[in-house]
Amino acid sequence: MFRRVKNRLLRYVLIVIYSIILFTCAVQLNFLGLFGYSPTKNDIVMPTLNVASEVYTADSVLIGRYFEEDRDPVPFDSISEHVLDALIATEDIRFYKHNGVDFMGLVSGAISTLKGDPRGASTITQQLAKNLFKTRYTNAQGYLSKVPGLNILITKYKEWMTAYKLETRYSKKDIITMYLNTVSFSNNAYGIKSASIRYFNKQPKNLNVNESALLVGMLKGTTIYNPIRNPKNAMQRRNVVLAQMGKSGYLTEAEVKGLSRDSLKLDLNYKDNIDGNDSYIRSAVERWLEKWSQDNEIDIYKAGLKIYTTIDSRMQKIAEKVVAERMEELQRRLKNTWGSEEPWRDKEGKVIPEFLENHARKLPIYASLMQKYHNNEDSVFRDLQVKKEMEVFTWQGMEKVKYSTMDSLKHYLMMLNTGMMAMNPYDGEIKVWVGGINHEYYKFDHVNQAKRQAGSTFKPFAYMAALESGMSPCDKFTDKPVKIEFTNKKGEHEIWEPKNADWSVSYREMSLRWAMARSLNTITAQVTEAVGWDKVVDVAHLCGIESKLESVPSVGLGSNDVSVLEMVKGYSTFMNAGKKTDPILVSKIVGMDGNVIATFKSEQKQVISPENAWLMTYMLRGTVEEPGGTSQALWEWDLFKNENEIGGKTGTSSDYVDGWYMGVTKDLVAGVWVGCDEQSIHFKNSATGEGSKTALPIYALFMEELYKHPELGVTFGRFPESTVEIKKDYRCPSPRIRVEQPVDSVETPDSPEDEALLLPELEEVKPVQRELDMQRNNTQENRSDNLP
């Protein structure tokens, strides 16, 4: 074909042009996989930036971010002109004169290299192509990349073509902005905004000349010119950039000299925009969106999403403050309970041998020390007992101590933890989520990951099973010894004899409402037997408990492990007229373009009758209103203005390991759990460790503070009226009695309390508020200090 061209020079020119065209096509098409990936037209139109996603509360407060690269792009007009000047002067002085590839710069760079002054000739656009499309990564290379010498040639050529495509698609402003938003500045700072905040604690618009020169200088080598690790190198490189700005006319010679004498003046900022408890929310949202991310093939770590949660930042702040204050007191109480005694005990109260040692054997340091000491465990534990200076987490902040590894292990194992969640029962929106005491040291989330024995907070499901079976709140059972014979799963015959928390029985007939209010194990066991423990399990699952429940006679007393989230969901079914409402943590997701790409609404399903649901809310109020109700400690707080109604249930598991409180009002359902992660460490008795002494005060303080801010949507008032006719009898006033401090546990305290004193029955039903006032007086007369 080329032989037809008689002119030899023209023929060679045509051959070269034709070869370039063929080579270009082959590279673009990745012919036979020889050249590797090249960006397509669509890639150029919509370049991919790995942009951090942000997590917001419902009231638009930023509480966290997800990122592999901490990147937050900013527009051109949000970047200091000093940054632009420094970048052009140092990296690409002819930026505004070329179309992506600067051939004059290539010649100049080659000449400088030959003279012993090596410098790159890549334009800003070429560097952008490299950053955006990872042209030098292994997955962008073809088979020819293994041939020495060809690798860099093919890579450079692809970058030239990509740079040209970028220049034809975007303006110079767009290109330099994209470049500054994609480059790495070390210390997990990607993009100019992250870097300016990380190193100077200011927005990129406000960077001065020296700060701009320092950041631009880092681009030559983010490690060697890192101002934190290598401040001398960073200063020298900054001064080189200043000199280049002088040569390019952006600075005068005097300005260069003056600025070069200035110090770095770093103002480091490593704040993650989230505190300890918000970290639990951030992790919970991540788990919440896992399936959504997979189904939609969206990586929340790279997609630049704005994720709006249902959390109210103001409610969350109140909850966190209350938890911190109360848990500090409880921690002090637990420490005082045991004093110098070893707190890890078995069911018989005996010290568990080798407890700390067994936990130490799970530590990474144990394995390394075993290797160091050639499997001589005595030497390992001698090393672990050596005291040294360290910092440990306390409620007063990080405290410097002289601890051994074993001391530190004991310290952290003895820390009480908590989980708290509050939810709108009608739309499922979660308003508060406190997953633990400190996410940095305790990653496990105690709202939805941890499952603990529910104790008496589970009893309402047994009574709901009774209501669903046809009983009414006024049906009566006798508080008497109970003996239940049954066959277990192994086919073995068993006898179960539950006892009340105070070891006593009154032989008194009680309505279901009164019995649940006093949390009597004997009557709850009779109710469970009457309806069948399978029925209790079924009702609990219908209401929202998803954990596996063992169908045994003790199920109604809360012998199974459940999560705080499940319990809040179950109690919300009562408040929402029998409709099970799925909790919602994320309300909507907004894409990088500002368009809403997903919304989330709670699914609701009618699972129990509206009549029985309303009756259960009435029974839950009984723990406050009925004589001896286990929630009467709530009267210690300012919670009952304007005829306000609160219902709830305390709960305490065996040996005071778990303390619970579930509270319901007309606007909010909340659950609180308190206990040690290590279940062999717990309080000794009901006076210090039952739910009414640990979890209930957290709920009460939270609600008391919440009621001071009616603008948050939680206000005083009565429970909603029933939406259906209540046909069952529920108006059955209980006799007035005076009891000692109510106890509520599936386990017994160390010694029985005095039997309650029966007082004359009321002659008539008093108005609710007047009755509540009498209960408050009775409770206050018998109230004692809960703290050691």
From TrEMBL:
Pathway: Cell wall biogenesis; peptidoglycan biosynthesis. It catalyses: [GlcNAc-(1->4)-Mur2Ac(oyl-L-Ala-gamma-D-Glu-L-Lys-D-Ala-D-Ala)](n)-di-trans,octa-cis-undecaprenyl diphosphate + beta-D-GlcNAc-(1->4)-Mur2Ac(oyl-L-Ala-gamma-D-Glu-L-Lys-D-Ala-D-Ala)-di-trans,octa-cis-undecaprenyl diphosphate = [GlcNAc-(1->4)-Mur2Ac(oyl-L-Ala-gamma-D-Glu-L-Lys-D-Ala-D-Ala)](n+1)-di-trans,octa-cis-undecaprenyl diphosphate + di-trans,octa-cis-undecaprenyl diphosphate + H(+); Preferential cleavage: (Ac)2-L-Lys-D-Ala-|-D-Ala. Also transpeptidation of peptidyl-alanyl moieties that are N-acyl substituents of D-alanine. Residues 741-788 are annotated as: Disordered. Keywords: Carboxypeptidase, Cell membrane, Cell shape, Cell wall biogenesis/degradation, Glycosyltransferase, Hydrolase, Membrane, Multifunctional enzyme, Peptidoglycan synthesis, Protease, Transferase, Transmembrane, Transmembrane helix. Residues 63-245 form the Glycosyl transferase family domain. The chain crosses the membrane at residues 12-37. It is found in: Cell membrane. Residues 763-774 have a biased composition (Basic and acidic residues). InterPro entries: Beta-lactam/transpept-like (IPR012338), Glyco_trans_51 (IPR001264), Glycosyltr_51/Transpeptidase (IPR050396), Lysozyme-like_dom_sf (IPR023346), PBP_transglycosylase (IPR036950), PCN-bd_Tpept (IPR001460). Pfam families: Transgly, Transpeptidase. Residues 775-788 have a biased composition (Polar residues). PANTHER family: BINDING PROTEIN TRANSPEPTIDASE, PUTATIVE-RELATED, PENICILLIN-BINDING PROTEIN 1B. In the N-terminal section; belongs to the glycosyltransferase 51 family. This is Penicillin-binding protein. It comes from Sphingobacterium faecale.
